[in-house]
């Protein structure tokens, strides 16, 4: 007689308290009555529940998993059970965070992925403003959006995580740190500790970053986005103050019709003069779809750059360890050449802030947009033998070959 044990999708547990000895049911003879499939397994009566017993009991009776702890210190990290793997079903965790008296707590999430419902009534994180769940609820969180930094008004904060039995996601990771007391922390005070922008809230302050920057897990520092697609009408790429990457890339993509990018450098301080290790590379596209790829280095400001359709800016920080940086801004401006060729008779060229016309080889520009063959004076009615037929051909006027005028015969080129 044999049967299969249901372990509720858990590995078979030879340490279970439910096991009897191999010899328990012997009939006067030393013959094994219970033999495990694993020849190396040791079975027998245990003195306490095994970890497998506890897991299977919790599953069988749908008992919530208890986790969490009392956390003390000036900073630390809190993660969901099994993070970064999926958390377990029917989990309940409670963390009581305490920092030194006279300080407050800022809690910042670096990763967040929970089952999401509108009311957050499945899996959720709740944060309370004090040492227990009886204190004021600061916020309830669920879903996948990275939450904003949460601040307490005292030196204690309570964090609760609950999951149900349905869907298990990747969980969360958060960091906490001690911060100045609320009465000492406001945006009017220069000691508000926000690196860039500061917003007063009901309980405290909230730090924010300018465009093209991202707020760091400490809730106050800002770091330039090192790889970014820029589509705004204006913007300001900056070299990062510090970055784990040795190369930053900004890509500008055209979204406005009949306009071009204008990139202007306002600060430029790179160490190398040979552009081998530390440089800013600009890849731009011209009107004829030709691509120009050029590197800049040293301390001289690069020229203002015009680009059609798209522009890529690559900053190689190098390996010297010395601080280098640049600052540049971009904006769209009208492309006069896109409409009626800028009224140019031959070729229209866009330049920063304006445009100019050019003629093909052997011709010269006059009246800003027209072309005529080089060496021929302007058609003068009193000097011509015949009426001028075309300004792109030999005029029946006066050819200037020396300091004197020589009259042409009836020749038409």
Q: Can you identify the CATH superfamily of the largest domain?
A: Spermadhesin, CUB domain
> Tell me, what's the shape?
elongated
Provide mean pLDDT, rounded: 76
| Residue runs with pLDDT of under 50 for 5 or more positions | 380-413
End-to-end Cα distance: 114 Å
State the CATH topology of the largest domain.
Answer: Jelly Rolls
Enzyme class: hydrolase
InterPro entries: CUB_dom (IPR000859), EGF (IPR000742), EGF-like_Ca-bd_dom (IPR001881), MetalloPept_cat_dom_sf (IPR024079), Peptidase_M12A (IPR001506), Sperma_CUB_dom_sf (IPR035914)
Organism: Dibothriocephalus latus (Fish tapeworm)
Domain CUB: 67-179, 222-333
Provide a short characterization of the protein structure:
This protein is mainly beta and 413 residues long. 2% of the residues lie in helices and 38% in strands.
Question: Could you describe the 3D structure shown?
Answer:
With 413 residues, the chain is mainly beta. It folds into 4 domains: 1-63, no CATH class; 65-197, Jelly Rolls; 227-334, Sandwich (Jelly Rolls), CATH 2.60.120.290; 353-407, no CATH class. Helix content is 2%, strand content 38%. It contains 1 helix and 28 strands. The strands form 9 sheets. The protein has a 5-stranded mixed beta sheet with strand order 1-3-8-5-6, with no helix packed on it. It starts with 50 loop residues before the first helix and ends in a 6-residue tail after the last strand.
Features:
413 residues; mainly beta; Jelly Rolls; five-stranded mixed β-sheet; 1 helix; disordered C terminus; EC 3.4.24.-
């Amino acid at each position: 007689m044999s049967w299969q044990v249901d372990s509720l999708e858990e590995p078979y547990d030879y340490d279970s308290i439910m096991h009897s000895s191999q010899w328990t049911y012997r009939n006067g003879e030393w013959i094994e009555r219970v033999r495990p499939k694993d020849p190396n397994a040791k079975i027998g009566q245990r003195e306490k529940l095994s970890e497998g017993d506890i897991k299977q009991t919790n599953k069988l009776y749908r008992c919530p998993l208890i986790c969490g702890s009392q956390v003390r210190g000036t900073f630390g990290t809190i993660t969901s059970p099994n993070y970064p793997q999926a958390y377990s079903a029917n989990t309940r965790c409670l963390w009581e965070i305490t920092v030194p008296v006279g300080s407050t707590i800022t809690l910042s999430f670096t990763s967040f992925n929970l089952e999401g419902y509108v009311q957050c009534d499945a899996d959720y994180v709740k944060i309370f403003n004090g040492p227990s769940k009886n204190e004021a609820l600061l916020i309830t969180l669920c879903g996948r959006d990275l939450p904003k930094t949460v601040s307490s008004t005292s030196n204690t904060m309570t964090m609760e995580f609950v999951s149900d039995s349905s869907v298990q996601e990747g969980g969360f990771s958060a960091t906490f740190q001690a911060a100045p007391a609320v009465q000492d922390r406001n945006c009017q005070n220069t000691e508000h500790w926000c690196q860039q922008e500061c917003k007063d809230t009901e309980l405290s302050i909230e730090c924010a970053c300018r465009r093209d920057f991202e707020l760091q897990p400490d809730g106050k520092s800002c770091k330039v986005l090192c790889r970014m697609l820029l589509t705004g009408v204006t913007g300001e790429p900056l070299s990062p103050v510090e970055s784990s990457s040795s190369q930053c890339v900004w890509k500008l993509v055209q979204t406005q019709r009949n306009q071009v990018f204008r990139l202007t450098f306002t600060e430029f301080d790179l160490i190398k003069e040979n552009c081998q290790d530390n440089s800013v590379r600009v890849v731009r596209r011209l009107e004829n779809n030709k691509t120009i790829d050029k590197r800049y280095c040293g301390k001289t400001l690069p020229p203002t750059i015009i680009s059609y359709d798209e522009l890529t800016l690559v900053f190689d920080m190098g390996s010297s360890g010395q601080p280098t940086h640049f600052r540049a801004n971009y904006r769209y401006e009208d492309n006069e050449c896109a409409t009626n060729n800028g009224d140019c008779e031959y070729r229209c060229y866009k330049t920063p802030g304006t445009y100019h016309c050019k003629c093909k080889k052997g011709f010269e520009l006059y009246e800003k947009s027209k072309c005529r063959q080089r060496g021929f004076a302007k058609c003068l009615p009193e000097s011509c033998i015949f009426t001028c037929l075309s300004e792109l051909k030999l005029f029946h006027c006066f050819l200037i070959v020396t300091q004197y005028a020589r009259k042409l015969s009836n020749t038409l080129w």
